Amino acid sequence: MKDLKFEQKRSLSRQEAADQLTALADALREGGDAELELGSATLGLRIPDDLHSEMEVEIGDGEIELEIELKWPTAPKRATPPRKNTPAGTARRSKGAARTKTAKRSAAKSP
């Protein structure tokens, strides 16, 4: 179930469509909290820095349909703290230690 759904269908002039897209582009460019005026309604959104986009064009039945979809999570992503002992770091240390022991043994055997 969706938490909220806002849908608006209406006829627009080419200029009105461009104005709507320009307002959306400005909100995307600024990020953060944005308010979009959509006809008689105002929609407030929090827009993060990273988005997922999808564009679809369908041509058929005497019409062209263009869909632009933008998605982002409702909650900000939490930064994961760096791990102190990573398996890769541990492996590098143990290989280095093994090389040092081998080098010492070789040096001890050499005349």
From TrEMBL:
Q: Which organism is it from?
A: Streptomyces variegatus
Q: What are the Basic residues biased-composition ranges?
A: 92-111
Query: Where are the annotated segments for Disordered?
Result: 71-111
Could you tell me which InterPro entries the record lists for this protein?
Answer: Amphi-Trp_dom (IPR027598)
Which part of the chain is the Amphi-Trp domain? Answer: 4-77
User: Which named protein is this?
Assistant: Amphi-Trp domain-containing protein
NCBIfam families linked to this entry: amphi-Trp (TIGR04354)
